From TrEMBL:
It holds the Pfam family EcoEI_R_C. GO terms for molecular function: DNA binding; type I site-specific deoxyribonuclease activity. Keywords: Hydrolase. GO terms for cellular component: cytosol. It is an enzyme of class 3 (hydrolase). The keyword Transmembrane helix does not apply. This is Type I restriction-modification system, restriction subunit R. GO terms for biological process: DNA modification. It comes from Thioalkalivibrio nitratireducens (strain DSM 14787 / UNIQEM 213 / ALEN2). Its EC number is 3.1.21.3. It comes from the Bacteria.
Amino acid sequence: MPIQGPLAALGPLRLSETDRETLQREVAGLPSEIATDDIESRLFDLTALRMQLALVEADENAFEPHRKRVVEIAMLLEEKATIPAVAAQLEYLAGLQESAFWEGISLAGLEELRLRLRGLVPFLDKKSRTIVYTDFKDEVLGVRDGEAVSIPKMTGAQYEKKVNDYLRQHLDHLVIRRLRTNQPLTAMDLKGLETTLVEIGEEDGETLLSALLARSESPSLAHFVRGLVGLDRTAAQAAFSRFLNDRSLTPQQIRFVEMVIDQLTARGVMDASALYEPPFSSLHAGGPDELFAGRENVIDAVFQTLASLEPRIRDTAG
């Protein structure tokens, strides 16, 4: 098509090699006006597409890894509730973490999921984005006509959240209350609590609970639960009352005891070695030994009291 208008007077346009290099260097790299999505959003699109394909092919082995990834993304997004776009989807995010959400899930349901979440995944912290970037290698295991995808299993992260929520919402549960108030448990108490936590994990409860305890590095289930629910402040104050009421102690020494109570209230359990670390070391660089110099009997008694607050199992034999 011949050039028309004012440019026609210039004659045919011929670019020299130098002109081409200049255009390539200065112009070709300029951004276009067409907005592009964040890479996280596009990768989430890919995850949703793979789930849709797996659903069509009734391939549970391909579907499940992606579903677990989506559930973990939803859990992480819940921590971003201060972001308006995330806050608007909180109810949906909570719902998709339940097994009922996935029962009978359709292609339309997966498409809605994609549209709701694709714009939110860029809000994840950088250290959490590996969940979005992780690429599960697809394996063709064959198509099974008419076979529905079964209700998916619970993820470890999902189970941990459910356990944490249950324990914090049932502080008046008999066994949990005993742990919080430093009352000894019976083996039956502990077994009952274990059964409850296993039931939260449904068919994989035992495996999920074992894995959770291993990750927490807690020496026992009682220690794990106490670590989550903390020690009742009144119980902690009662245990250390002799020190709080000791008028021979200095204000700094009293403050040390109060900090022990604060930590036990928040953490539930605490090893004696923690007394040599922050925040305790901020009171005296030499640690409790120097802080209580000349009062070794006092610091020894503090250590003994701390040990007495470890969760205990009462022997009911006989």
